[in-house]
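Tokens for chain A. Residues wanted.
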């Protein structure tokens, strides 16, 4: 006996014409919502999630860079150069994230057009 749902028999809804009618009606409702401006709401929400993730990453990278600067200043002499180099790299990443979020460039201007005001 094979219990594979993909290779098995079709469910009872597949043969029901009312199921296809409801599926088509729901597709029409979704497309109407998107056509009437719902795509702006969806892109606004997606941009808000991405910006929040970038903000959290920027805070984490900045905090880790500060910890590495402190560890390079007060840590053991053998590990100071490695920690200082990593702190400088993380500072550059922090500056890159800041420019990506706050800079005036094509991606930022496109994101501004997609936001709901």
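Reply:
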């Amino acid at each position: 006996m094979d219990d594979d749902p993909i290779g098995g028999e079709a469910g009872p809804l597949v043969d029901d014409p009312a199921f296809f009618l409801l599926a088509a009606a729901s597709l029409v409702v979704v497309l109407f919502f998107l056509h009437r401006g719902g795509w702006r709401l969806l892109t606004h929400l997606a941009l808000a999630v991405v910006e929040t993730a970038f903000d959290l990453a920027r805070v984490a990278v900045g905090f880790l860079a500060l910890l590495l600067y402190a560890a390079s200043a007060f840590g053991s002499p053998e590990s100071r150069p490695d920690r200082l180099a990593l702190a400088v790299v993380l500072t550059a990443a922090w500056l890159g994230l800041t420019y990506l979020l706050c800079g005036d460039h094509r991606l930022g201007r496109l994101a501004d057009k997609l936001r709901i005001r």
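The mean pLDDT is 84. The longest helix spans residues 17-74.
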